[in-house]
Specification:
Blueprint (H helix, E strand, L loop, with lengths): L2 H4 L2 E2 L1 H10 L4 H5 L3 H16 L9 E2 L10 E3 L5 E3 L7 E6 L5 H17 L4 E8 L3 H8 L10 E4 L3 H5 L4 E2 L1 E5 L5 E6 L7 H12 L1
Parallel strand pairs: 5-6, 6-7
Antiparallel strand pairs: 1-8, 2-10, 3-4, 5-9, 9-10
């Protein structure tokens, strides 16, 4: 099994438990309280040191399938639609605060976004099964803190449409709205090789 795949957190058990629960107590089952999150931070930091290094390998898709559209509210309450960014290359990252490789890769996405935000490029990051308070608190702890849109996919309906099996899973969508690359597991998104691939998509 590849290193990046070992670092992927499966979603299947969460979805099955959510179905059994009927959705009424989803946050209580899967989302730690803010206090619990703060208490877990030292343990998570130690766990992250035991994870494999982030890689920069992406899987090219050929032919490129159309990316499913979505409409999700971000942390500012604004609805973000993938279709609104047609004509731009979009990095779509499915993640959660309880996912160690997600936590590790997010600063690299912000660095990439800052480097390319003057280009036709966007990052959209739908969080899975979590609420506003937890996600907002988590993003404030990151350095650098993300300035790209982070959305709430509280029932994980968007990730199902994208056939996401584990977190993190990322897709790079070309300017025509097709999925050009996929990555399962943590990535160092500001690695020169990934930047090169994105710039090539921008130039198409």
């Amino acid at each position: 099994m590849k290193l990046a795949q070992r670092a992927c957190v499966p979603l299947a058990r969460l979805r099955e438990s959510a179905r059994r629960d009927g959705g009424g107590h989803r946050h209580a089952l899967f989302v730690p309280s803010l206090l619990s999150l703060l208490l877990l931070l030292p343990l998570q930091a130690q766990a992250q040191t035991d994870l494999p290094d982030l890689t920069h390998k992406l899987t090219a898709l050929s032919p490129r399938p159309p990316a499913p559209d979505f409409a999700l509210k971000d942390l500012d309450g604004k609805t973000q639609r993938l279709s609104d960014y047609k004509g731009k290359v979009v990095l779509v990252n499915f993640w959660a605060t309880w996912c160690p490789p997600c936590r590790r890769e997010m600063p690299s996405m912000e660095r990439l976004y800052q480097k390319l935000k003057s280009e036709p490029f966007m990052v959209l990051a739908p969080d899975q099964y979590e609420n506003f308070d937890l996600v907002f608190s988590f993003t404030g702890q990151l350095d650098p803190a993300p300035t790209f849109p982070i959305m709430l996919d509280e029932k994980s309906t968007t990730s199902k449409a994208w056939k996401v099996k584990g977190l993190p899973t990322s897709f790079i969508v070309d300017k025509q709205g097709r999925i050009a690359y996929r990555a399962v597991g943590g990535r160092e998104f500001d690695h020169p090789e990934i930047e090169k691939l994105i710039r090539a998509l921008i130039a198409e």
